[in-house]
Amino acid sequence: MHPAIPHLIELQRVDHQIAVLRAELEAFPKRIREAEAKLGSARAEVASAKEAHALVIAERKKFEFDGQQWKDRARKYRDQSGAVKPMKLSKHCSTKSPMPRPKWPKRMIASSK
Length: 113
Hints:
Elements: H1 5-93, H2 106-112
């Protein structure tokens, strides 16, 4: 066997490793582009989700505000109606009312007993 053959075998192994590393190195830009495309897509989805979330929150706040307004209106109506009813009752039940008391015939009073 020739004394240079072991060196040639080692050179062939190193050359093969260099070829493998070059192939990996050439594949990196493609992998980077794919990763950036995925990242861009994911960022777009996140932005879309944030926008949808913001719209839902704004709509929820609007409904809560409307609900609070209706509660306030109902409370105001109840307060006003509570204040008005006693006045009406007292107005109609007072002894000084302009409406005269009905005078029932004695015969009707006796028949009801």
